[in-house]
């Protein structure tokens, strides 16, 4: 059973593009597409993506490209500017902090002097109030008052926050008034030595509180440990001052007036030692300066150590001595002066470090300012350079797209010509410099045809007429075979060779494709006349054979895709032994068409083929039957005369010659 199947024609090979269109006349949209093809840019999927990309051909697109290029260049500049600004801000902050720390250090130095002179005034006042020392210490006490007042006057500012509950500390003048009133009323107050010590100690503790609040880690930063060590030295001196005063009382009276005073002395001594040890732990500079100042005064430490042990034992037996008390006081004063010298040198070292840090920060700020100026000067230059470069790149892109478009056209034209000479798969391998190896195809069908009486026609025609005749004939053939799964191998003179199943395998359909194509070509040639011989029509002789072939590319200068094997020879024999207007097929092709079904064939009755020795030897070696057939008709095609027994001459009737098959619209298949 066979029927007519409607099929869509195969797409014909790409035709060469005319050179009439000049690349210089491309429109902006064409250039845009060319650039996108060149850069493999997919079309934007949404408006935001389109806005970000920009069209490099239009003015707005150029502006977008310029903005993007400028942004890419300016981002590092902005980042560098930001980092520089951050560094400048950090350096400036460090510079300000160093200045503030320096002010705090100067304030601490002056505050330490106030505490030192208040300690001496406290000790002298306590000595004055003792029964044994009143007559001798009056002049020494009066000498301490001006020193304390001058130290108070040198304080850069007066802190009132932590001491608002004490009215005498609300201002410097009020404190001086309070201190002077106490001095003048010292003889009439009837205060004990302990009370005097407690009064001055309470005043000193307020100033120590100010000292603690002035130095914080957040404010002092990198120099904080040195400042804390400096502070600890001052605190140690304060407790040593208490130790000096209480020890003086001990030697004046030969004993401690009470157990509380003894405990006070012990506490002051222990706190002083621990505080000074803490200062040396905070800063190695304290230990270095202390050892330097104590050098040559080792005997002083021995004497003080012995007297401290004696006071801790409290074994004088109530025998007081002003001379011994004065000796203790003077030695402790010398030792405290050594600590004061250590304190001053430590302040000098800290000040020097701060000055160096400030100088370094100032140099950094100057350098950063120079960088800022350079950046602000170079920014316009960079922007202009980017603008010029982007403009040149855009011009070059357009030129490159123009040339790429032309190159693509030439490439398509070249590929079209190449695919007409070689199969596409083979041509692609050759373009990639790959070696095309020979390949065996077990199933294929070969078609051969030539023009009956071509020699006589050529004798009656000029060479140009022969070329025009063959061109019109084979152009028609090329157009018809494009709708079938076949490959045109070559044309030599009036010979036309086509194969199916090569180079693209199509299973068992190769015989049907060739058979249908042969019927179509016979119908097509019936409607053609020789251009320069009106009324004379072509007579085509066709032969087909099925079997295996070997394919390969021959040559390197002009490579040709060739078929080799006995199948080619037998197909040529089928054509040469055929008759005009008829399709001569072999036994193998006949069996393949019978298997597929839908084809009408007739056995060849004459013995012309049997006379061919080559064919006889070929089939005899394979022990196969040797019969050939005429392909007459295929089911579903308009019925024509293709050389049936009713037309022994091979010519069709007048009515049948007017019918034709439009191969571009219909293809005929089988089930």
TrEMBL record:
UniProt-annotated stretches for the region Disordered: 639-671
CC per GO annotation: plasma membrane
Residue ranges of domain Guanylate cyclase in the record: 445-575
Protein known as: guanylate cyclase
Documented EC number(s): 4.6.1.2
Transmembrane segments: 72-92, 365-387
CDD domains associated with the record: CHD
Extent of Basic and acidic residues compositional bias: 655-671
GO biological-process terms attached to the record: intracellular signal transduction; receptor guanylyl cyclase signaling pathway
Keywords in alphabetical order: cGMP biosynthesis, Lyase, Membrane, Nucleotide-binding, Signal, Transmembrane, Transmembrane helix
Chief localisation class: membrane
GO MF assignments: adenylate cyclase activity; guanylate cyclase activity; nucleotide binding; peptide receptor activity
Membrane topology, from the record: Single-pass type I membrane protein
Alphabetical list of InterPro entries matching this protein: A/G_cyclase, Cyclic_nucleotide_synthase, HNOB_dom_associated, Nitrate/nitrite_sensing, Nucleotide_cyclase
Pfam families: Guanylate_cyc, HNOBA, NIT
Enzyme class of the recorded protein, top EC level: lyase
Organism: Elysia crispata (lettuce slug)
């Amino acid at each position: 059973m066979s029927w007519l199947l409607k099929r869509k024609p195969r797409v014909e090979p790409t035709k060469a593009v005319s050179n009439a269109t000049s690349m210089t006349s491309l429109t902006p949209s064409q250039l845009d597409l060319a650039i996108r093809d060149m850069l493999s840019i997919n079309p934007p999927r949404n408006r935001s993506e389109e806005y970000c990309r920009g069209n490099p051909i239009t003015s707005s697109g150029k502006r977008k490209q310029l903005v993007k290029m400028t942004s890419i260049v300016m981002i590092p500049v902005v980042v560098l500017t930001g980092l520089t600004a951050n560094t400048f801000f950090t350096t400036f902050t460090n510079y300000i902090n160093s200045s503030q720390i320096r002010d705090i250090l100067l304030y601490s130095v002056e505050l330490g002097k106030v505490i030192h002179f208040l300690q001496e005034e406290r000790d002298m006042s306590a000595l004055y109030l003792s029964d044994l020392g009143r007559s001798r210490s009056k002049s020494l006490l009066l000498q301490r008052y001006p020193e304390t007042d001058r130290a108070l006057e040198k304080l850069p500012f007066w802190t009132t926050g932590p001491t608002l509950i004490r009215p005498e500390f609300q201002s410097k003048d009020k404190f001086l008034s309070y201190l002077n009133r106490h001095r003048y009323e010292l003889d009439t107050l009837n205060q004990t030595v302990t009370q005097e010590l407690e009064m001055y100690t309470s005043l000193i503790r307020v100033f120590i509180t100010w000292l603690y609040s002035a130095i914080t880690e957040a404010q002092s930063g990198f120099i904080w440990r040195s400042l804390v060590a400096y502070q600890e030295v001052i605190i140690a001196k304060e407790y040593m001052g208490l130790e000096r005063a209480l020890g003086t009382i001990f030697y004046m009276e030969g004993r401690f007036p009470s157990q509380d005073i003894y405990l006070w002395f012990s506490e002051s001594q222990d706190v002083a030692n621990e505080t000074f040890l803490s200062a040396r732990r905070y800063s190695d500079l304290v230990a270095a300066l202390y050892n330097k100042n104590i050098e040559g005064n080792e005997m002083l430490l021995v004497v003080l150590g012995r007297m401290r042990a004696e006071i801790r034992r409290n074994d004088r037996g109530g025998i007081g001595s002003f001379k011994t008390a004065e000796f203790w006081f003077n030695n402790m004063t010398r030792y405290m002066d050594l600590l004061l010298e250590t304190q001053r040198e430590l302040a000098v070292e800290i000040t020097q470090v701060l000055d160096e840090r400030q100088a370094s920060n100032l140099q950094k700020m100057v350098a950063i300012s120079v960088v800022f100026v350079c950046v602000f000067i170079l920014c316009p230059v960079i922007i202009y350079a980017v603008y010029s470069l982007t403009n040149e790149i855009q011009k070059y892109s357009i030129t490159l797209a123009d040339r790429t478009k032309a190159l693509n056209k030439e490439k398509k034209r070249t590929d079209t010509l190449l695919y007409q000479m070689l199969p596409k798969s083979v041509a692609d391998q050759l373009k990639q410099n790959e070696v095309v190896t020979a390949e065996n195809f077990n199933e294929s069908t070969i078609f051969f045809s030539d023009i009956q009486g071509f020699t006589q026609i050529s004798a009656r025609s000029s060479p140009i007429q022969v070329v025009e005749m063959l061109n019109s004939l084979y152009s028609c053939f090329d157009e018809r075979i494009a709708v079938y799964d076949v490959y045109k191998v070559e044309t030599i003179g009036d010979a036309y060779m086509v194969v199916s199943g090569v180079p693209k395998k199509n299973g068992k359909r190769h015989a049907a494709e060739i058979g249908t194509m042969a019927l179509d070509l016979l119908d097509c040639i019936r409607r053609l006349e020789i251009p320069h011989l009106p009324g004379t029509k072509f007579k085509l002789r066709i032969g087909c054979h099925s079997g295996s072939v070997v394919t390969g590319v021959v040559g390197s200068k002009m490579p040709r895709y060739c078929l080799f094997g006995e199948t080619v020879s037998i197909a040529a024999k089928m054509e040469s032994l055929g008759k005009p207007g008829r399709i001569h097929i072999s036994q193998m092709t006949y069996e393949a068409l019978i298997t597929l079904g839908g084809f009408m064939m007739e056995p060849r009755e004459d013995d012309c083929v049997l006379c061919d020795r080559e064919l006889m030897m070929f089939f005899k070696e394979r022990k196969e039957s040797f019969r050939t057939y005429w392909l007459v008709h295929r089911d579903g095609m308009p019925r024509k005369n293709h050389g049936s027994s009713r037309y022994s001459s091979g010519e069709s009737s007048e009515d049948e010659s007017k019918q034709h098959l439009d191969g571009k619209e219909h293809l005929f298949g089988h089930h």
